[in-house]
Prior knowledge:
Number of strands: 0
Order of helices and strands: HHHHHHH
Number of helices: 7
Distance between the termini: 26 Å
Number of domains: 1
Shape: globular
Protein name: TerB family tellurite resistance protein
InterPro entries: TerB-like
Radius of gyration: 14 Å
Amino acid sequence: xxxxxxxxxxxxxxxxxxxxxxxxxxxxxxxxxxxxxxxxxxxxxxxxxxxxxxxxxxxxxxxxxxxxxxxxxxxxxxxxxxxxxxxxxxxxxxxxxxxxxxxxxxxxxxxxxxxxxxxxxxxxxxxxxxxxx
Length: 133
């Protein structure tokens, strides 16, 4: 499991992503808060991330990087609006984490086939598996 610093990095990256369109909307904030709870990050540490940056740490394992990419896809779609800027940044995050560009593109393509653009975890995993075999 991730260290506390890694968890803060995950959340910091997600907060920066949510701020791309200028303001964090209520559904985005609620999603971020739920992720913080699931990661075991307390409310004070979570709140502090909105005002300060933390060290960026790329998740070590492939599974953790795919999970973080999935979180970012969910975050992008939680407000039902995807901008070109968000899509470009999401691709950049994926590439920076070492994920295959073709897998990233496929996820962004198939998300439109699912209600609320929520790609089921197993579908996402299968996409990445197929691009690594």
